Amino acid sequence: MSAVISPEKLYHDYRDKVEGYIYSHVQNEQDRQDLAQQVFLKATAALHSYDPTRGAVGTWLYSITRNVVADHYRAKSREPIPLDPAEAAIPDEAVARILTREMLDALAGALEQLPERERNIVIWRFYHGISPQEIAEKTGISYANVRFLQHSALNKLRDWLTDTELF
């Protein structure tokens, strides 16, 4: 059973909520705008399949939004990291090892500055590859709080590491 809801009403009623979710998860303004458009394009294309007996239209649209953001990050993680041509021509392997060691030391120092809970979440998430949901289950912290702490920690790390000349 599909509900009759117009794409215009869907956009009017949920634009702010969709954009708010995307804006809280994506840093780049252009990406934010593109993702919001993708959400409403996908929702409009799938509107015929919305079944109100399975949940509210907001829940359905939230699922689409969450999936679009997740797809965005999956695609980003597969993009090759562009190298500066000057950095690509490292003349000596030993220099590369020293630079890598200095970068790791800087990262370790920045991690030590984080509160223990944030540091543990970053290590579990990015070193051990544990999902935020699994971290939430293991620690008893809510999934939303795990995501918030991860976001906060990464922002702090980014700020601290951009102050070094290694990053």
Report on this structure.
With 167 residues, the chain is an all-alpha fold. The protein contains eight helices and no strands. It has helices spanning 7-25, 29-46, 57-78, 85-88, 93-113, 116-127, 132-139, 143-162. It is elongated, with a radius of gyration of 21 Å.
SSE blueprint:
Layout: H1 7-25, H2 29-46, H3 57-78, H4 85-88, H5 93-113, H6 116-127, H7 132-139, H8 143-162
Give a nutshell description of this structure.
By secondary structure, this protein is an all-alpha fold. Helices cover 74% and strands 0% of the residues.
List keywords for this structure.
8 helices; mainly alpha; 74% helix; 167 residues; single chain
Roughly what is the average pLDDT, rounded to an integer?
81
Strand portion: under 5%
What integer value in Å does the Rg equal? 21 Å
Helix content: over 70%
Main sheet attributes: strand count, strand direction, barrel closure: none
Number of helices: 8
| Structural class by secondary-structure content | mainly alpha
Note the overall shape.
Answer: elongated
End-to-end CA span: 54 Å
* Low-pLDDT segments: 83-91
Q: Helix-strand pattern, N to C?
A: HHHHHHHH
Query: What is the strand tally?
Result: 0
